[in-house]
Amino acid sequence: MLVEVVAYLIVPAVLMVLSWKLWGRYSTPTDPACALPLPDGTMGLPIIGETLAFVLEGPNFSSKRHGLYGDVFKTHILGRPTIRVRGADNVRKILRGENDIVGTLWPDNFRKILGTENLAMCGSGTVHRQRKKIVMRAFRHDALAIYTECMQAMIADTLRGWCRGPQPVAVYPAAREMMLRVAIAVLVGFHQDKDEVGRVSALFRTSIQNIFSLPLNVPGSGLRKGLQCRREIDDWLEHHIHQKESLIWSGEVPDDVLSFIISSAKDEGKTLDKQELYDTAVELLFAGHATTSSAATSLIMHLALQPQVVQKVRQELEEHELLQADQPLSLEQVGRLTYVGQVVKEVLRICPPIGGGFRRALKTFELDGFQVPEGWTVTYSIRDTHASTEQVSCPEQFDPDRWGADGEQSKMGRRHYIPFGGGPRACAGKEYAKLLLKLLCIELVKRCRWELADGKAPAMTVIPVPRPVNGLPVRFTPCESHENSTLSENETAQDSLDVTANSETPVAGQSPPKQDFRPPCEIVMATKSEACGA
Fold first, then answer.
1. Shortest CA distance to 30 belongs to which of 103, 81, 86?
2. For residue 516, is pLDDT > 70?
3. Residue 62 CA to chain centroid, in angstroms?
4. Which of 290, 293, 374, 385 could be a cystine partner for 179, CB 3.0 to 4.6 Å?
């Protein structure tokens, strides 16, 4: 009896230890020709590695391990042995090593849901360069100038609805729908009513939520749900794209990004097949609303927490005579608003909507004193690189002035600021995204006063994009017409007293008491852990 009990206890334990040892050896194949060691780190459980921790821990997954192992560590996520990288010099080597030491790599779920016939998934360096040349024509200065009026009008219409509707507004889902409306109109050129936008938004939301699920296409799995939504999105695209192609081949090119891409390909003697058109449209809509809605939510949150920043934006608009509520803006006028540009840069620094990127090692190479074996996945972190740089004082503090002519960022190398990636695969739509955020900032300050309903920065989650766990409830009220004219000093002082006396919550659009504002590091309106999960 005793022997049987011991056997029942010992045999499973021995098998578990043996399997763990075999997994550790199997999951960390090194290049014997390279004398450098692998980075420190752990490979997790057999088969699944550390994938569950990666999904469940969010930003703490990488920050905790960087704290233990340094800027470079090894892990096993999404079915592959992986090197995680942060730090400006390390990330720069990865980004500049495209097609030399690393090549593009996307997890299987991304490829299945977003498709493989688009710019992001394009593997070959030559083919990627040719396709990016075509796509970039749709984001040139002259093209952006055409899109500006439509973008501004749709943002203004949305903000009017937020001010007039029930309060508080859950900003993240509302911003997601707004950005999808703009993307549908400007990026793919479809005209949809509110109900149809809501239906398509739900399809994209389900697809995006399941893009980091386990790669198992079985009934009830996240991947199966994402693929079903993708099929419905393709059905929605089919009719609209057919109409668009007919117009273009008849010589009439609509003013939207997808039409410009189809027309540019035609000028190059190329024809995009059906799957390329579907995957390109999905890529535009996914990137054009999932990331921008995250950044838009961060913008609204940080401005609500920093009324003195809102006041400086208002002053700049006043100096340029742009405070009239329904005044149309040109791309040149937006470009002259330097402080608005600084606000957008700071939003993208403190809470970049894209956490990083995936690459595959084409050959074994050295990184920060360690070997990166051929065939391993390499993931670089934008968020951790921004948060850990020593070139920025108080990186957790939201401070647009750091981007001014005399600010620290103006003297810092660009490699420390990479919200859109870099190298050959830098985001093709980055100028569109920046323009969209600038227009949102302008229209917010012109039209609204707003405050966080909870009075504080919310907890954040970062997968698949940074967003508030509570959706960011915000109370919006419209600015009266006289508030958009020049404020006298007495009116400004009285507004400041009203804010201080009536509420502890900062109110964006109202002037704070200037004597109470202090910018040093110890005053942090939104900490990293609360404001952006960095």
1. 81
2. no
3. 17
4. 293
Average pLDDT over the chain, rounded to an integer = 84
The residue type of 237 is L
Cα 173 from Cα 201, distance rounded (Å): 10
Report the DSSP pairing between strands 80-85 and 72-77. antiparallel
Q: Mapped to the 3 state alphabet, what secondary structure does 41-82 carry?
A: ECCCECCCECHHHHHHHCHHHHHHHHHHHCCEEEEEECCEEE
Q: Is the dihedral of CA 328, 330, 333, 338 positive or negative?
A: positive
Evaluate whether 353 touches 295 at the Cβ level (below 8 Å). Answer: yes
CB 192 within 8 A of CB 256: no
- Of 6-15, 112-121, 291-300, 309-318, give the lowest mean pLDDT range: 6-15
- Say what the pTM is: 0.84
Per-residue model confidence as pLDDT tens digits over 176-192: 999 999 999 999 999 88
Three-state SS across 262-283?
Answer: HHHHHHCCCCCCHHHHHHHHHH
Return the amino acid letter for 257.
V
